[in-house]
């Protein structure tokens, strides 16, 4: 019987927030505001780092690409949630689910590596200022960004193939807001230990390694800054990397909270909210952090607004 059912699953039900029927309108409004904010905030960063002459440096080149990534990353998740809340249709085809899964994790990996590249950029700027223009030339910047976007693709295509060729037989109800690994593995009716192990290996390689490289950059940055003779010098050097440091802490902090909770006390609803936090927090706060803390960006924003009115 179970065997016969395997091929029947052509689509999944993304239950999403359907356990909160009274809050559908509220959640729709909330996510619409958040998504619009993410598009506007990151869109503004893309525009000003493109047009403002003062901001034509590697640091802002990376920031622009990072903001672009944040828009793509949230666009894999949020529009679908909005449509589901609006239409109350919760089915997602097998292919769409696989595509969402693959795109989401490719971009999550990109995010880790772009943050690493940005930390490396700050490391070179602060610890090797004389060689900075030489090391961070156009070609290197482009290669670093391109590498960050592509490094996860082959691995995640493999993982997606692996997860979506699991037999799903009893149910097609994903108690989640998007096609994430844990709810999919929960539905599979065969042994998932091999795939859980491979997910673990991928996480170590593509999360831990970038994270350790970021720590390494910051250890060197901070020890260099502490050796600077004047307090103004210290403050100036630190202010160029503090925004990035805050974004790093937000991103890895929310990732740790989401994915390192013990399995036993995972209740569906908390899980859903946490995994959304993980996808929403960094894209939402990234533009705010940079525009509140960075004088060049504030000036460029003012200029842009004055030019418009
Ligand atoms: C970011 O980098 C990727 C890969 O090199 C590229 O496809 C994309 O257009 C870039 N985006 C921006 C806004 O620079």
What does this structure look like?
The protein has 309 residues and is an all-alpha fold. It has one domain: Rhodopsin 7-helix transmembrane proteins (Rhopdopsin 7-helix transmembrane proteins), CATH 1.20.1070.10. The chain contains twelve helices and three strands. It has a three-stranded mixed beta sheet. Helix 2 packs antiparallel against helix 3 and helix 4 (94-127) packs antiparallel against helix 7. It is globular and about 65 Å long. The protein starts with a helix and ends with a helix. Residues 1-5 have low confidence and may be disordered. 2-acetamido-2-deoxy-beta-D-glucopyranose binds at residues 46, 64-65, 68, 145-146, 149. GO terms for molecular function: G protein-coupled receptor activity; olfactory receptor activity. This is Olfactory receptor. It is a multi-pass membrane protein. It comes from Vombatus ursinus.
Task: Give the strand line-up of the largest sheet.
Answer: 2-1-3
**Per CATH, which architecture?**
Up-down Bundle
Kindly report the oligomeric state of this protein.
Answer: single chain
Query: pLDDT under 50 segments (min length 5)?
Result: 1-5
What is the domain total for the residues? 1
Query: CATH homologous superfamily name?
Result: Rhodopsin 7-helix transmembrane proteins
Number of helices: 12
The level of helicity is: over 70%
- Order of H and E elements: HEHHEHHHHEHHHHH
CATH level 3 topology: Rhopdopsin 7-helix transmembrane proteins
Largest sheet: 3 strands, mixed
Question: What's the mean pLDDT score?
Answer: 88
Instruction: Name the structural class.
Output: mainly alpha
CATH class: Mainly Alpha
Secondary structure: number of strands: 3
Gyration radius from CA atoms, angstroms: 21 Å
Strand content: under 5%
Distance from N terminus to C terminus (CA atoms, Å) equals: 69 Å
Bound small-molecule species: 2-acetamido-2-deoxy-beta-D-glucopyranose
- The shape is globular
Subcellular location: Cell membrane
Organism: Vombatus ursinus
Family: Belongs to the G-protein coupled receptor 1 family.
Keywords: Cell membrane, G-protein coupled receptor, Membrane, Olfaction, Receptor, Sensory transduction, Transducer, Transmembrane, Transmembrane helix
